[in-house]
């Protein structure tokens, strides 16, 4: 693999370091520094990129997304090209690694899709694994999940999904107030899978018990759950109170008000991960779509269930989430970048490999123009 030197960049990686350079070799960060010292390190065969003062960040990591470019990851078992086409859209917007989310479906169908994602991941470094958003969700907070397919968790279902995932299952969203949920959280955590609280009617105490039991993610905070009331603090406050829990946020200006997004960042510093929760309509025209088995209408980029008008998945990309964070939400750039890089890497247990641009880390990076549009990206140096 060729080596690359990127110089004269403002490196944003926890802190901002102007006039930085970085050298990639064999898919990893080999060295970094400031000023003109890159010339001492560069070989004649290196590709040299003059960033011209633009911003360079670690590659963006999406913990939760369902597709893009008219394709959904739920199609994986029928047509594996869906994965590559959807990921290509997100890559153009700065995502370098992604966990592929599947909506509620029968356990057999989910197992088949997990196997398809496993096969795809063998050739596609962008794929970090799979996320099951359902079927173990609450009826009243189901969002865009088919009510007929919701069910409680039991050992047989969890075992079948763990076996089909075979190490590629990263995350399972569960409503903790339901029968069997506690045992399911135990089994997932024991297998190294992140248990997430979401699409839930749980109050503060119930959510707190799930986190104490080992759940470590709050699925799209504020959406698909009770909000924060001063006498009924709810699952978001329980997640803020639990130092090992990461809060996902869909920061598209539609799902959560920008000031409430800012509140989440202040309430859980270093523990908010911005996700896309993108559906097939991301990077694709408005119109009629399917989310799992449910009809969705997308108007002006906002996806709603055709039947009920309930807000469904987003059409967000991570670069747009970044712009929203520093724009409407008023967050510092380095905080917003961390919510796309080191925070999601850490929650997956990949904090020593991904999410930073220190020597030894994967050579995943995004070069951004002054308006935070993606100019170029690298995955494992390529
Ligand atoms: Zn989702």
From TrEMBL:
Transmembrane segments: none annotated. It comes from the Bacteria. Residues 55-371 form the Amidohydrolase-related domain. CDD domains: NagA. Keywords: Carbohydrate metabolism, Hydrolase, Metal-binding. The keyword GTP-binding does not apply. InterPro entries: Amidohydro-rel (IPR006680), GlcNAc_6-P_deAcase (IPR003764), Metal-dep_hydrolase_composite (IPR011059), Metal_Hydrolase (IPR032466). Belongs to the metallo-dependent hydrolases superfamily. NagA family. This is N-acetylglucosamine-6-phosphate deacetylase. It comes from Leucobacter iarius. The gene is nagA.
């Amino acid at each position: 693999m060729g080596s690359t030197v990127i110089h004269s960049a403002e490196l944003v990686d926890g802190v901002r370091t102007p006039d930085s350079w970085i050298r990639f070799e064999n898919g990893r960060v080999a060295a970094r520094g400031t000023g003109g010292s890159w010339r001492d390190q560069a070989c004649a065969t290196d590709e040299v990129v003059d960033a011209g003062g633009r911003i360079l960040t670690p590659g963006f990591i999406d913990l939760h997304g369902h597709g893009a470019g008219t394709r959904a990851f739920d199609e994986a078992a029928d047509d594996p090209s869906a994965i590559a086409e959807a990921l290509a859209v997100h890559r153009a917007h700065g995502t370098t690694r992604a966990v592929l989310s599947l909506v509620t479906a029968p356990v057999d169908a989910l197992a088949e899709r997990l196997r398809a994602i496993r096969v795809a991941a063998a050739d596609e470094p962008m794929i970090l694994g799979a996320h099951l958003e359902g079927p173990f969700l609450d009826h009243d907070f189901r969002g865009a999940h088919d009510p007929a397919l919701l069910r409680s968790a039991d050992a047989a279902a969890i075992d079948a999904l763990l076996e089909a995932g075979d190490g590629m299952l990263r995350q399972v969203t569960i409503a903790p107030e339901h029968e069997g949920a506690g045992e399911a959280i135990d089994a997932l955590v024991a297998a190294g899978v992140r248990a997430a609280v979401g699409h839930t009617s749980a109050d503060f105490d119930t959510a707190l018990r799930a986190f104490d039991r080992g759940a470590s993610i709050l699925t799209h905070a504020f959406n698909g759950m009770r909000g924060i009331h001063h006498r009924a603090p709810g699952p978001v406050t329980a997640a803020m109170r639990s130092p090992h829990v990461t809060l996902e946020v869909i920061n598209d200006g539609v799902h959560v008000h920008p000031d409430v997004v800012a509140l989440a960042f202040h309430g859980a510093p270093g523990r908010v991960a911005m996700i896309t929760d993108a559906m097939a309509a991301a990077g694709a025209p408005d119109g009629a779509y399917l989310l799992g088995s449910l009809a969705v209408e997308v108007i002006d980029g906002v996806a709603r269930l055709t039947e009920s008008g309930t807000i469904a998945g987003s059409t967000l990309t991570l670069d747009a989430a970044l712009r929203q964070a520093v724009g409407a939400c008023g967050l510092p750039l380095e905080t917003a970048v961390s919510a796309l890089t080191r925070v999601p890497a850490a929650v997956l247990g990949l904090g020593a490999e991904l999410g930073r641009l220190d020597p030894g880390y994967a050579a995943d990076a995004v070069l951004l123009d002054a308006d935070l549009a993606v100019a170029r990206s690298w995955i494992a140096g390529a």
